[in-house]
Amino acid sequence: MGSMIKATALVTDNGFSAIDNATRAGLDCLQQAGIQPQQVGLLINAGVYRDDNIMEPSIASLIQRNMNMGLDFAADSPNQVTFSFDVVNGACGFLNAVTIADAFLRNGSVEYALIVCGDAHPSKTDHPEFPYVAVGAAALLHLSTAAADANKGFGPFAYRSNESDCLSHISTYGDLAQFGHQGRAQGQFQFSNQYVEEFRRLNVALINEFLAQHEQPRVDFLLGSDLEAGYCHSVCASSDLKRQPTRAMELFEHFNGDTHTAAPIAAFHQLQREVANPSGLSLLFHAVGSGDASACALYRS
Known about the structure:
301 residues, alpha/beta, Peroxisomal Thiolase, Chain A, domain 1, 8 helices, 29% helix
């Protein structure tokens, strides 16, 4: 039994603040689940880009404050305090966060874990050169004790990094000397010409390795990173998933761009809209991004 998704939320119409989008997605997610913020013991923010290029405190702590989630410790109710932090690992951040949350849930430290994602330009504007769609996404995880759920949830996980010492095919940085007093609203992006193809190669290599190690498990849907129109279909066609009728959940055209860290949640959220009864499906979450790194995890609904 692994961590299960109790609810998800996706925000697409809330402007260009990563903090505001993640906050609203988190609140919407808890409302859908019928859970109060004080019941959530762990909050992880897996978004990469930060409003005003804030370095401290963690973005998770600011989202936690905005959600009024477990802010005050009381000796008579220690379980109503929320532990929060950021996990910054590009597009793989959500699956890294799930791995961490799963450990907390399994050892009984928390009852619910909330993961939020979403990226926006540090200037909090619709910057024409920002390469990702400004959305907010949230997923609420829990462990079910029901006998019927014994084989459901996340697991196993797999990760793969580029084995060479070359620079990442995508990088974002800030040149403080060049930015000067405008640095809080600036960002510099570098993309290699072949970054999509290199990411696809890494993504496919991980998926093939994962399928081989786990005796070719059934995969009904592929959910996650969608870097360009048709990317997920191409991953299915290029990998060993082509041996089975796996359906790729396309996001790029639906959102008119790359949803980056929010992609796995966005894909699951879209799946729930398109499939009337997703119970019993086997899903492969995948992510690929700068590092270069790829991650995947099987999820049984």
